[in-house]
Amino acid sequence: MRLFLLILVTMIAFAANSVLTRMGLAEGRIGPAAFSAIRLASAALALSLLVISRGRKLPLATPGRWRGVLALAVYVLGFSFAYVWLSAGVGALILFGAVQITMFSAALRAGEQMPPQRLIGAAVAFAGLVWLMWPAGHATPDLAGSFLMAAAGIAWGAYSILGRGASEPEADTAANFLLATPFGLAALPLAVGAPLTPTGVGLALASGVVTSGLGYVLWYHVLPQLRASTAAIAQLGVPILATAGGVALLGEALSWRFVTATVLVLGGIALSLRRPRRLRD
């Protein structure tokens, strides 16, 4: 039960992060470059102070650290810039589709055993997302935005896989954010001429310190206890939570399409995570 609650809180943090980003970018309160830089820098500062206050050192020179840093930077920048061209729903679909492919591929390469019901459940849940997020009619997502969001999804899948080996979640996350911050600062010249309001800065700070910084620490606590495929499937609930947040906080309409998709996604996740019954002799 404790593990389930930690996963639930983490998924809520991820969904809240999407809502905060949508509130900042979609409403023209802040540009993607400034949002990314503030998000990375604020998370790095908050988590570094937390780690240092506990008398611990930041593991900046750990072998292989660059992989987590690069994955985090690509995810944050790709995620923010993709929403310049994509709607929130299509963006979420592309992001988590790429996450599923990345993490399931890693699980298969590692020889992870996957019962048929896990694969069927994952397919049902993803079908629910497609039903909810894909635009009506024949609209085609923007190619540049789709590429950036797919890159973000692959990077987040890689970041999650690396997190399964985290021994110190707080220190590892702090080090990743601190070393990824220069990538965000390097993108600041692209912020020239983009909107920058106090509300936008506040949303970026909340995204950095709370839903990214603390949320990712929780994720790194949880990941060592999960199989790669299970961690991938659990994240399929994030777009549903994000859409629900949009209904509650952004005044978006609640539709039967959303209700149907929610049943499919949650049912698929439940089927995937259910332990198969052993046959009796």
From TrEMBL:
It comes from the Bacteria. It is found in: Membrane. Keywords: Membrane, Transmembrane, Transmembrane helix. It holds the Pfam family EamA. Signal peptide: none annotated. GO terms for cellular component: membrane. InterPro entries: AA-Vitamin_Transporters (IPR050638), EamA_dom (IPR000620), EmrE-like (IPR037185). Residues 4-133, 144-273 form the EamA domain. The chain crosses the membrane at residues 34-52, 64-84, 90-107, 119-137, 143-162, 174-194, 200-219, 231-250, 256-273. It is a multi-pass membrane protein. Its main location: membrane. This is Threonine/homoserine efflux transporter RhtA. It comes from Allgaiera indica.
